[in-house]
Design brief:
Length: 174
């Protein structure tokens, strides 16, 4: 395999510190309550695992998987649910956890899908936010880091199913 050119963007130490800050904010906002935390597969699995272990309030865990058709590095606008949640969320406080929001199309689709189940509340926590690339107006409630354009890998994020296991986050040259 040709060695990719990559540059570190966030170290594991910087990530750990930011995850602790986010968890503190979330714990404060939901103090005394309970959460259903829904991760979006596959990219959110590492971020979600770290986050829920820092949130000091009880939570149930579930996952969804969505497919977005089009180029491998960008959503096409056609998003389809391929694995639904298995937990009842009616009347519950929901936190969606996602690796990265780019155009916003994936999360917009998912929020609409989950709102039909009548949760009590629904908030979104993203590890990374490519704010300038939105195609729909969409704001996450909790954001780890805002980044510029560029394709990132590591800490759960892949390129063609590679590099998810990297503990740090890199920008790659494609
Ligand atoms: P959106 O629907 O917001 O355009 O896209 C969100 C999805 O696009 C993410 O869940 C992720 O799968 C993919 N994506 C967008 N930008 C990046 C990136 O820089 N790196 C990786 N690995 N995936 C990305």
């Amino acid at each position: 395999m040709k060695e990719m050119s990559k540059e570190i963007l966030f170290s594991r130490d910087a990530i750990q510190k930011r995850v602790q800050e986010l968890a503190g904010q979330i714990s404060g906002d939901y103090a005394g309550g309970e959460l259903v935390v829904i991760g979006i597969l596959k990219g959110a699995f590492i971020f979600m695992a770290d986050l829920v272990r820092e949130i000091g309030i009880p939570c149930k865990i579930d996952f969804v998987r969505v497919a977005s058709y089009g180029a491998s590095s960008e959503s096409s606008g056609k998003v389809v649910m391929t694995k639904d949640i298995e937990t009842s969320i009616k009347g519950r406080d929901i936190l969606i956890v996602e690796d990265i929001v780019d155009t916003g199309l994936t999360l917009q689709y998912l929020v609409d899908w989950l709102k039909e189940r009548n949760p009590h509340s629904l908030k979104i926590c993203v590890f990374l936010d490519k704010r300038k690339r939105r195609k729909v107006s969409f704001e996450a409630d909790y954001v780890g880091f805002t980044i510029d354009d560029g394709f990132v890998v590591g800490y759960g994020l892949d390129f063609n199913e590679q590099y998810r296991f990297f503990p740090d986050v890199y920008v790659i040259e494609q």
